[in-house]
Amino acid sequence: MLVGLFPLSASAKGGYVLGPGDLIKIQVFEEEDLTIEARVEDTGSIAYPFIGHVKVRGRTPKQVQDNITKHLKGPYLVNPVVTVSILEYRPFFVNGKVEKPGGFPFQPGMTVQKAIALAQGFKKRADRERVLIIRGNRSGSKPVKVKLSDRVYPGDTVVVNRSFW
């Protein structure tokens, strides 16, 4: 499972927390028809055979795995072996006084400095001392001042303010 190779979401003490935009793969051992790839919808759910819509937002891959196992066991399979893997993390965003603001694919080890580099660097009037981040793993998250060495997680928004000078 790929989950162990990547940093955890800022609020995920028990593992990476899934959210809209993540692409996951669900495999059921020796049940090819139940193996799917699904992108988490804006509603925070995915469609899964036999079960219907499964809520995954705010849950770790392990929690989703356990939930699907529970629903498949009994009515459909005797002892299902389910694995949930993350194939692609949701993007993070950089906006404000950078050369190319926008959304970017998450990469392991992402820092604020690397995120700004992906956005082709600071503009001339950027305030390099007042960079903010809005954590994408919580609704209503407020901007927090960060250092260039701080971590960026999937769904985060890095905001580079304008300098007063």
Question: Any overview of this molecule?
Answer:
This protein is mainly β. It folds into 2 domains: 87 residues, wza like fold, CATH 3.30.1950; 71 residues, Outer membrane lipoprotein wza fold like (Roll). The chain is 12% helix and 31% strand. A 5-stranded mixed sheet has the order 7-6-10-8-9, with helices on one face. A 3-stranded antiparallel sheet has the order 2-1-5, with helices on one face. The chain has a two-stranded antiparallel ribbon with strand order 3-4.
List the helices and strands and how they pair.
Layout: E1 23-28, E2 36-39, E3 45-48, E4 52-55, H1 61-72, E5 82-88, E6 92-96, E7 102-104, H2 112-118, E8 126-134, E9 144-146, E10 157-162
Parallel strand pairs: 6-10
Antiparallel strand pairs: 1-2, 1-5, 3-4, 6-7, 8-9, 8-10
Give a quick set of tags describing it:
165 residues; mainly beta; wza like fold; Outer membrane lipoprotein wza fold like; five-stranded mixed beta sheet; three-stranded antiparallel beta sheet; 2 helices; elongated; disordered N terminus
Briefly characterize the structure.
The chain has 165 residues and is mostly beta strands. It has helices spanning 61-72, 112-118, and strands spanning 23-28, 36-39, 45-48, 52-55, 82-88, 92-96, 102-104, 126-134, 144-146, 157-162.
